[in-house]
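seq/struct pair 1
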Amino acid sequence: MIKYFLIIITLIIPFFVCSQQINYPLNHQLNISVNKQINYTDNYIHTGFKPLLKSYLTQFSDFDSIIYLKHRDSLFLSKRNHKWFWKKLRTEDFIVIKQKDIYVTISPLLNYEFGKELTENKFLNINTRGLIIKGNIGNKISFFSDLLESQAFYPEYISSYINKKTVVPGQGRKKTFKDTGFDYSSTSGYISITPYKKINFQLGTGKNFIGEGYRSLLLSDASFNYPFFKITTTFKRIQYINMLTAFQNVSNSDSRLTSYKRKHGSFNYLNILISKNLQIGFFEGIIWQTSDSTYNDRFSADYFNPVIYERLSRYSLNNKNNILAGLNVKLKICNPLQLYGQFVIDDIDLKKISGGKGYFDNKYGFQAGLKYFDLFTIKNLYFQAEYNRVQPYTYSHNIPMQNYSNFNEPLAHPLGANFKELIVFLDYKYKDFFIDLKCNYQITGKDTNNLSCGSDIFISDKYSYNGNHSYGNITGQGLNTEIIYSSVILGYLLNPATNLQLYIGMNYRLYKTKINQSESNFIFCGIRTSLDNFYFDF
């Protein structure tokens, strides 16, 4: 991917250098600072579809000074000029190239983590090396690319998940490494072009996220990178986003025709700023049936239709192409306090609602949450609470290939469906130090007696727990399962240019059913370039 960007740099005639068309990272911790600045800014700002574009946000405030801490108040960083090595370690990208209208930075990407599973007396390790290249060509074109190579030894519950799914959560297909470990790699990158102030084009491979919460029930960044083409049009209080994607289902088969079965997605998102304090986003997502057991990549021209809900009105939700619709809402109560929520609907049969509760084909979910910045008037003390609930069989489909997934993982919530979840966060920053506390409490219903209870979206919904076209389906049906996941991380920010951190932490997980119970308790420490989100809290 790097060589393609270098070719582009040498061939494109540059423009006059000004703003950057680069995206802010999706990392949750970084976005706390961005969200706080947005909440305290008295402007109309669209935030529903992420990653957020840097040039868009800098119209309203100096977000660089917030997220990259240009005016950094460091406990150990003095005000005097530093030697070259100290600058590269603490304040700058490793390589910076400035030449006329071209600006390029190159930095190492790493995650060296060492830990121990206390319950099983097992040593853990993550060894990730990589490279980040990003830059600007004039004021209208920016680019980003990263490459990662990893080997890892995970706790037992994560290892079991990887062996079952054949992929590392959010990080690509696995290969065996030294019997019990895993070897995996990934690349991502994009070109971002803003020919006019109100429109941006992005072409690349990566992740996207819709919503204001930790989870998204519409489109999250939990699965692996995927190719996408995205058009963002912003006109005052209205923002309209069209995105075309290509997803894959991965199997153990070696057949070149079917091993990486492809399906394509079309997404339309309309965000309206009702006021400076309230915004509502309308969502439409379609997973097209473009492959079966014998062919790949056959899709209709309707795949490119940019009009939101037009295809929904023609095809309806109950269609061979898996169609979802939803809402995303954000309300600022006051500068420190923000409420948010989502509603997603997969399939629905209005005629069956009067027949009784819990019809298996009425699939929906909702989210409700709040964020409080500077809690108790303590600067940089952040609190967040979020509740998610999804009905059984949501995101699944009669044709398993058409489920709402990519690379054997859900495109929305990592638990799939048929769950209730409460998440609580507490985050505090003091100069370059930070502490993150998180607790998840989840109730879900696992499959039992070889019947689909609605949590596994990769099983056809025609094999439903109570039978096809059944009533009486409730959230949590099946083998009642409780999951408690808590974590605490204490860290120090080494370099804000790449969010390079030193950290130490502890995770605890309790998995409990009526049949069995298991615990995982591990401590860890390391150094990492923290730009992405990887989810192991399931």
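seq/struct pair 2
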Amino acid sequence: MLNWSEIEARVNEAMATAILPGLAMAVIQAGEVVYTHGFGVTSDIPAAPAVTPETVFRIGSVTKSLTATLVMRLVESGALDLDRPVTDYVPWLRLHDPNAARLITLRMLLSQTSGLPTSLDYAGWREASGLEAYVRTVLPSLPLAAPPGAVYAYSNPGYNLAGYVAEAATRVPYTTLIQRELFEPLGMTRTTFDPLLAMTWPLSQSFLLDDDGKPYVKRPFVDNTGEYPCGFAISNVDDLAKIVRMQVNDGLHDGVRFLSSESIAAMRRPHAEQYTLDERTYGLGLRQRTYKNVTLVGHNGAISKYGAFMWWQPEGKAAVILLSNRSANFWGAGDRIVLSLIDSMLGLTQKATPTAPAKAEIPLAAYAGAYLSPNIGLAVLSIKDGRPSLSLNGVPLTLELVYGRLYNGKRPKGGAVPVGFAGTADAPVLYVDGSACLRVSEPLAGCEPDVWAERLGTYSGETDRWHLRLDGDQLRLYSEDDRIELPALPIDDHRLASDFGLFEYVEGETPMLVGGGGLWRFYRETATA
């Protein structure tokens, strides 16, 4: 029997430490909802309404699991095929790489192996026709991050395209289709994409922190119909528990077949490895990872400072759903809450450390070189006397073999990141902390920090305010929301690499820093002399 008073005390303590104004939680045990609860508040006004299990939040990329479930329903009905080229459904589709459109399939889109980039715009179309307009006008402008089918490369545009393929094949607008095929059959009565409908329900705002570390409501509320399938759903823990119960009960919803066992298995099956110590993989709209000898399945989400966790252990039929109105600091706190509850429900014991084999399974010398990733920055792999070492954004890491193609990269001052060797000797791919890094074909130009002297100052955008400063001969980048400052390494005269990721400086009437492979834009607000 779970002690809910103790659990609530731990949650409240975690929220206070992470500065999370509000959080909602649902717990599923033996396939049934056993607990729902709300913590904290929904706004920064005096006597703000409390969060309850009925409170709706944006759920970010947990939406991808909903879109994937919709696609699987249409596959079962015969309207879609996972392995046909998407041009069979959208013949006029054009992408930045002319040859890519005819190679990409729904399976690639749902498994994050299409090669499409990360990219996301919070503001855009408000009309129902926005999704088609996005596919016609935005997709062709986005350079591919990798060849189709080659590597795991997390993509919001890929899911927007998958949602539009469903729309095109059925000739039913995406939001109408998912309402008909998913929300209504599962009884998800408080799940929508329409902000005007959501505001008639108990709705939580999202939060940033001011200069004193006090939470305040983030404005405005974002909307872009062109990006709905990848991350714009609004829901609550009660509704999300219904789709999770269907998953842990092998496709049954209250005894009625909703998805076949084969479709459930296909969604959970690893389609793309990420080369991490917890064996992270991506299926069809679902993530997988190993925790204490069992597999956890689910998804995380973040959008406009909202955060979401939806994780379950299929065999044990145990699950935890968390929705938060502040995403910064939520990842660590939320994960600890999820794992402690999974521990308690299933009585898990610690997994033993794997024994490393005598030698690696790869020709290390073939992987030497510089690699770039929007999420990781710059990684430079060197081989000396047959031993690999890695410089990550200018910081040297000692690589220790874990097994086969996986190493543990240990930092000089403590901490480590997993490093995986994927691809082939002819087309090498380096995974750092679960993100694919592609080798640079041309030598990097290099750049002295003082080239950036005229670009110092404050940059603000949808998700954060950044302060770029020069400390001696070292560029440093500070995140107001994370309250962390890290070294920034100039790669050339327009790109910076740091543990925050890769940033590009773009000239213009209002200069900006672009991060996350085009995902975030931060405009210069003030300059530093």
